[in-house]
Amino acid sequence: MNYSQTVEYLYSRLPMFTRIGAVAFKKDLHNTIAFCSALNNPQNQYKTIHIGGTNGKGSTSHMLAAILQKADYKTGLYTSPHLKDFRERIRINGKMISKSFVTNFVKQQQPLIEEIEPSFFEVTVAMAFSYFAQEKIDVAIIEVGLGGRLDSTNIIHPDLSIITNISLDHTNMLGNTFAEIAFEKAGIIKQDTPVIIGEHHPETDPVFIQKAKEQNAHITFAEDELLITSAAKKSNFLRLNIQGIKDGTATELSLDLTGNYQRKNIITVLQSVRALRAIGYKIEDKAVYEALKSVKKLTGLQGRWQTLSKNPLIICDTGHNKAGIAEVVQNIQQTPHEQLHMVIGMVKDKDITAVLSLLPQKATYYFCQPDLERALSAKELAEQAASFNLSGKVFHSVATALAEAKSKAKANDLIFVGGSTFVVAETI
Q1: What confidence score (pLDDT) does residue 172 get?
Q2: Name one GO cellular component term (predicted).
Q3: How many helices (H) and strands (E) are present in the chain, helices listed first?
Q4: In whole angstroms, what is the distance from residue 22 CA to residue 349 CA?
Q5: What is the CATH number that goes with domain 3-299?
Q6: What CA–CA distance (Å, rounded) separates 254 from 232?
């Protein structure tokens, strides 16, 4: 098999959550343990940092990877899902895994794959761990795929665990309350391993505190340690002043990720840097400042309040659950524009009514559906949206919806594209 045939084999042969949803989710670590054991447990050959949470874990992973890279660590980064290219999931110092490694890994492990019958995600995790070991990296940033306790990534023994926040998402698999979801996310808290929690929440704090106590893990809430005293968007940067609450230290920095929600993530990232320094990582302030100005360039991050073009201004964002869309709406409100055009598509297993209830009524909607099995039909989305006084036309592809929005928008208008990671993937 060549590279394209290999990737198609992975997509078609193995259960893939992003395409078919919950039935692809394996509720135990058996396959991953067996697969990695057959590979001589490559995940134990380098340092790791584990990052989970409902929203923000991707941005946080990329920011921390950029910082470690600038601090001269050979840094692996494992994230999911990808937007355009499968290889986005596995990077070293920002460079995607080689096509030859993907092809050779699958060819060599095909008998094992046929025997174990792992999911797409389980194979991808094992591939990442193996690649990082072969390339002799110093440290890997490992983003949790779904949940935490039973996620395939949760066989590592990290130097630091990070949980960005908790909101209601994937409730059909993780639970219907904040506390139930927090229990799953808390599964990445390990024995004698420090853990950073990004945000306080009255329903989740006790869950994290109890789990940390059971694991003898030192727990820190980032919000207790750092405070943003000012923030402003200037040019293509978010300029921030941050103060240490307990020690009074002041930090001024520029971040090339300009979404308002990055204010929460940056606190988590900076507190994580403090925790890493405390256990021996050599990270100079200069590395932090330089990295945060160039996260997108250093790591290849896309889809986070990303400007696609101007005149009219077109912005996309991968926010797709209630909390994520709330942040998107806030960003829209703070972005100067005349008319608002919303190119929106969703997948079936999201809390669609919660998202629709947040979307601005004073906008023209272009309802569409991404090209995957889990996609909610544009017609059904439009019908549900009508009950929230959201009106517009139905399009059967993202491309046609965006083309129509472009034809209708004037120079000072704003076109927003989102509702699903997969809508963004078809746009960038």
Answers
A1: 54
A2: cytoplasm
A3: 17, 17
A4: 9
A5: 3.40.1190.10
A6: 10
